[in-house]
User: What shape does this take?
Amino acid sequence: MKAIVVSKHGGPEELNLRDVPEPVPGPDQVLIRVVTTGVNFADIMSRQGRFQKNVPFIPGTDVSGVIEQIGENVSNLQVGQHVMAFSATGSYAEKVVADSSMTFHIPESIDFDLAGAMLVVGTTAYNIVMNVAKIKKGESVLIHAAAGGVGSTAIQLAKLQGATKIIGTVGSNDKIQFVKDLGADEVINYREENFAERVLSLTDGKGVDVILDSVSGDVFEQGLNCLAIRGRIVVYSHAGGRSGTVTTSQLNPGSRSILGYSMRNNSPEETIQTVNIVIKLIQNGDIRFIIGKKFDLSQAYEAHQWVENRQNIGKTLIKIKNA
Assistant: This one.
């Protein structure tokens, strides 16, 4: 089968299309013929050696497709079923293996593209908004990378929770209207102005109650300057490439909190519950996932460049030809 293989850590030029053996499902797993897979920033960090330390490897963690084979212990799924899954093997490939517990039937109201876009983004956004930040009615929220997959979903979830002021940051003016259309009240181009100063201006000097931070580094440190009394920052990625620093004197005088989140720490039961909730939110029309751009498997280089250079709006997908 064809797959994208990273033989050594580095730039997107290390994403090479190769012929590799098909993965073999274990007793509790399924083999899926891939239709779509999502491009997540974690894939970029793995390629760079910040997540995945061992090489060679096939990147990718979420997938939609059709079951081709089931393990001997699998009773809840069947061959030919349309599914989405958190893959156990790399999903930048024509076929992947997934644990049956992390494989979900695709409802008729959801197509392969949406199914391939929603798992990592939906699970992350739901957990940081609902379970970690616990955004409440009347609160103000600052969402970094607001035009991306997680950011654009988090805006909608914060709105559902009753946040009264939602502020997003973006890196270009062509993303501003997109973020406003999703429900943001204000959008800041961080390349053109200091977002912390603008946030303080928009909140009459009080700052925001919640910051959702996928960038860390300087962005995290500036965020502390516009965090309200009893405010909390949720750090769920380090896309900026550097950790942020904090002193305890920045926390206890204002009863401020810093919270971390990684989907890797979810239990299977938590993940299953979250996916089922996200599916219902989609079916009810409460949230939508915007797919900004699609690439072929042979264009993985271009797909990573697109996301890494912050050109993406919404979710970026890789489509498998002839799937």
Notes: Helices lie at 41-48, 112-132, 149-160, 176-181, 195-202, 218-223, 268-283, 300-308.
